[in-house]
Amino acid sequence: MIELTVDGEPLRAPAGQSIAAALLACGRAALRPSPSGEPRGLYCGIGICQECRVQADGRIVRACVTPVAAGMTVTTGVP
Ligand code: FES
């Protein structure tokens, strides 16, 4: 298990798990807002649609194909 920070809160997740899986495991399905403000989250799960964009250590990444890392800082809600 490793620890990262998500929106300012600590989160423990298995090393190698995707950011999206770690967030789903703790009940967080909404990752960002649509242009009209509706919650968006996982859709394809394979890195194609980009619906799962989050910011990780200052970079916009696809949460479904980006593994968690110790000390990583993740911010959701990025348009
Ligand atoms: S859910 Fe489609 S790219 Fe992540």
Question: Layout of SSEs?
Answer:
Layout: E1 2-6, E2 9-13, H1 19-25, E3 32-33, E4 39-40, E5 53-56, E6 59-62, E7 73-75
Parallel strand pairs: 1-7
Antiparallel strand pairs: 1-2, 3-4, 5-6, 5-7
Number of helices: 1
Structural class: mainly beta
- The separation of the N and C termini measures 29 Å
Mean pLDDT: 95
Query: Main β-sheet: number of strands, strand sense, barrel status?
Result: 5 strands, mixed
Query: Helical percent range?
Result: under 10%
Alpha carbon gyration radius? 11 Å
* CATH class annotation: Alpha Beta
Query: Looking at CATH, which topology would you report?
Result: Ubiquitin-like (UB roll)
The helix-strand sequence is EEHEEEEE
Q: Indicate the low-confidence ranges by residue numbers.
A: none
Number of strands: 7
Strand proportion, as a percent range, falls in 25-35%
Q: How many distinct folded domains?
A: 1
- Order of strands across the biggest sheet? 2-1-7-5-6
The CATH architecture category equals: Roll
What would you give as the CATH superfamily?
Beta-grasp domain
Characterise this structure.
It is a single chain. By secondary structure, the protein is mainly β. The chain has a single domain (2-75), classed as Beta-grasp domain (Ubiquitin-like (UB roll)). 9% of the residues lie in helices and 32% in strands. The structure holds FE2/S2 (inorganic) cluster. FE2/S2 (inorganic) cluster (FES) binds at residues 42-45, 47-52, 62, 64. FE2/S2 (inorganic) cluster is lined by residues 42-45, 47-52, 62, 64.
